[in-house]
Design a protein that fits this description.
single chain, alpha+beta, 7-stranded mixed sheet, 15 strands
């Protein structure tokens, strides 16, 4: 099922014209809200929201006087006489931080105030400074980061609080291979979660793998022709439609029909929960005794419940 088909189905269930652009846009908004609701069921612990991806460590070149548009993958050359080169990282944010060019490969030392050319895009700029990147923006669909691994150096990066990093390195100038990560808030411009790596990873281009629990990022009209399978399994797609229909009917004041769709939504969620419980095969999960924090199965018979065999 595509997003466009989900919009049509939602409007049909509400009783609105399916070709009206205003109705379609409103239905898309409600589908986005319903998708967030589905993602948040059972505390967001759905099997399909557990994901893994990677990024590369970088250095950040601050530039000024940009002519043209710098693109990810551009080869940077220092025309100031140093002969230094670098490669613009795939995650370079040209929209929000155009003058902070992240590079995942570097050779040589850039000259102060040298002229830079960017082969690929044809852009140019003036070099200002270069520094090790201290924080990294994670993917847009990251809700909760879980763990980080430095694949290049085959080492685990442990989670810690920012207080620990501040206590160990108040000047924030310890540079080597990262061994600690900490959540560092949400980027003010992109809205992405940022993490701080410490010590600050001094080698650009090392691969960092991380696991996280995600969510469904807002759909736009550009996603209308895309299959919903890309974001959530088919067994839970009806819940998104029922949830959107429920909210649209509430807007129109039809609480009875909204309640019917709420019932259908709960049915679809229950089906998804059953699948979620069995996603690891036919394992049997035993409930621990109340108060047992060890995580092990523990059974204590009640007094008088057992008797010797005759």
């Amino acid at each position: 099922m595509t997003l466009a088909q989900a919009i049509t189905m939602t409007l049909n269930r509400v009783g609105l014209l399916t070709t009206n652009t205003t109705y379609k846009d409103q239905a898309r908004l409600y589908l986005n809200m319903a998708a967030k609701r589905v993602s948040g069921e059972i505390g967001g612990k759905w099997w399909w929201l557990h994901k893994t991806t990677t990024f590369k460590t970088t250095k950040t070149i601050t530039v000024s006087g940009i002519t043209g548009t710098i693109l990810a993958g551009d080869a940077i050359s220092d025309n100031g006489g140093s002969g230094a080169t670098a490669t613009v990282d795939a995650d370079y944010d040209a929209t929000n931080y155009a003058t902070s060019v992240t590079v995942s490969a570097q050779s040589g030392t850039f000259t102060s105030s040298g002229a830079l050319t960017f082969t690929g895009s044809g852009a140019s700029a003036t070099y200002v400074s270069i520094a090790v990147t201290q924080t990294y923006a994670l993917d847009a669909d990251v809700l909760v980061p879980h763990s980080f691994v430095d694949e290049t150096n085959s080492r685990t990066i442990s989670g810690a609080g920012l207080d620990m990093i501040d206590a160990e390195d108040p000047d924030r100038n310890n540079e080597t291979n990262a061994r600690i990560w900490a959540a560092d808030g949400v980027d003010a411009l992109s809205g992405k979660i940022r993490v701080r790596m410490w010590p600050y990873h001094s080698t650009p281009g090392d691969v960092i793998r991380y696991r996280y629990r995600g969510f469904i990022v807002d759909w736009t009209s550009g996603n209308d022709s895309t299959e919903l399978d890309r974001w959530l399994p088919e067994i839970l797609q009806p819940a998104v439609i029922f949830g959107a229909t429920e909210m649209y009917l509430q807007e129109k004041g039809d609480s009875e029909a909204a309640g019917e769709n709420r019932f259908e939504y709960n049915e679809a969620i229950d089906n998804g929960k059953e699948t979620n419980r069995t996603i690891y095969g036919n394992r049997v999960w035993r409930k621990a005794e109340v108060g047992d924090l060890s995580g092990r199965f523990n059974y204590v018979p009640a007094d008088g419940s057992l008797s010797a065999a005759s």
